[in-house]
Amino acid sequence: YADEGTFHNFTGRNHSMEEIEPSEYCMCSTEIVLPPHANHHKTTFGGQIMQWIEQLAYIIALKVCKNNPTFLGVDEIHFKNSSIVSDRITLQGICHILSDAVKHT
Questions:
Q1: What is the pLDDT of residues 92-103, one digit of tens each?
Q2: In sequence order, which residues have a C-beta less than 8 Å from that of residue 7 and are 6 or more positions away?
Q3: What residue ranges in the chain does DSSP mark as E strands?
Q4: Is the model's pTM score more than 0.85?
């Protein structure tokens, strides 16, 4: 939780503790759906939204890990609603720490 001060992350091969500010764990991005992002029905391509998700996850992982993160994959994704050209899409990325590994959701 952001109001609990600093977060801790195990980093490096020796698993030394390093304090990381809460702002490095959560980040938002707002994207505008433009005509190149949409199909002939003017709804956003799912792949475009996934690209925006990957970019946000990469930026957060880069800030937390302090090295070059690798994208491993997505198990599944469900789109609850469609978006159309001129819509604004806000993405929120949160990084959760699990023992000595970093997991991004």
A1: 988 876 545 555
A2: 19, 20, 21, 22, 24, 25, 97
A3: 7-11, 16-20, 26-32, 88-98, 101-104
A4: no
